[in-house]
């Protein structure tokens, strides 16, 4: 009996160890496969992330390029407008400050320049920023006064002093002026308008514009005394 029992235990031990060896063999065989599968899944996930990142970067690059192209087109359109506007603004400024070619202009010439400016600016208002358009209107307000009725001509916010009279009706000519010296207001409005040209109109950053009243006035034409003229 003892012999039979001992033989049975020996068979069970052999069977257990055989199963253990099989398990070890299975694990040793499966482990590299599992590692390979996990590694492949991780690599595939990384490639997917890299692919999506690359696609996102390309989309962002295209969007940036499109935005820059649109800005350049808008800048070109605005620059074309300003090239027409700038000389007219300068003539109006010169007339109020008694400098440059002011003697060559009649009151009708100056009002005609205002009309042309308004036509250019209002017809292209959609291409301009509200901030820049407000600066333009502020300059017009400082240089001209509305007659108060639809059929009247704009009045020039300056004085008749020291201006050559080259029209037939002096009374009518004098009536076209407000006879005020508003050069300081004209100067500040003009400098504000020029400050808006670079940032608001042309989308460019330039050196810091004059910020104080004194700085702005110093950059305008001199304010000659006009109490008496030779």
Can you put this structure into words, describing what you see?
It is a single chain. The protein has one domain. It has six helices and two strands. Helix content is 68%, strand content 2%. Helix 1 runs antiparallel to helix 2. It has 230 residues and is mainly alpha-helical. Strands 1-2 form a two-stranded antiparallel ribbon.
Label this structure with key terms.
230 residues, mainly alpha, two-stranded antiparallel ribbon, 2 strands, 2% strand
Present the secondary structure layout.
Layout: H1 2-97, H2 107-123, H3 130-143, E1 144-145, E2 155-156, H4 170-174, H5 183-201, H6 213-218
Antiparallel strand pairs: 1-2
SSE series: HHHEEHHH
How many extended strands?
2
Coarse morphology: rod-shaped
Helix segment tally: 6
User: Helix- and strand-based class?
Assistant: mainly alpha
Low-confidence stretches: none
What is the radius of gyration? 42 Å
Question: Average pLDDT value?
Answer: 81
Distance between the termini: 151 Å
Strand content: under 5%
Percent of residues in helical segments? 55-70%
Strand order of the largest sheet: 1-2
How many domain modules?
1
Largest sheet: 2 strands, antiparallel
Short structural description:
Helices cover 68% and strands 2% of the residues.
């Amino acid at each position: 009996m003892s012999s039979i029992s001992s033989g049975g235990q020996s068979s069970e031990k052999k069977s257990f160890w055989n199963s253990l060896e099989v398990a070890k063999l299975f694990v040793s065989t499966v482990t590299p496969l599992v590692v390979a599968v996990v590694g492949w899944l991780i690599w595939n996930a990384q490639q997917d992330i890299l692919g999506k990142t690359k696609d996102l970067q390309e989309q962002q690059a295209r969007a940036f390029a499109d935005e820059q192209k649109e800005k350049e087109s808008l800048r070109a359109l605005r620059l074309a407008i300003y090239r027409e506007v700038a000389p007219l603004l300068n003539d109006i400024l010169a007339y109020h400050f008694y400098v440059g070619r002011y003697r060559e202009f009649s009151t009708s010439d100056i009002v005609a320049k205002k009309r042309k400016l308004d036509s250019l600016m209002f017809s292209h208002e959609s291409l301009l920023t509200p901030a820049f358009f407000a600066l333009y209107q502020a300059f017009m307000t400082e240089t001209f006064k509305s007659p108060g009725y639809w059929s009247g001509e704009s009045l020039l916010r300056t004085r008749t002093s020291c201006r050559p009279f080259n029209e037939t009706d002096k009374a009518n000519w004098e009536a076209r002026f407000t006879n005020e010296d508003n050069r300081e207001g004209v100067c500040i409005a003009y400098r504000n308008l020029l400050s808006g040209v670079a940032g608001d109109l042309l989308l460019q950053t330039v050196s810091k514009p004059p910020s104080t009243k004194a700085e702005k006035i110093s950059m305008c034409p001199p304010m000659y005394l006009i109490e008496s003229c030779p």
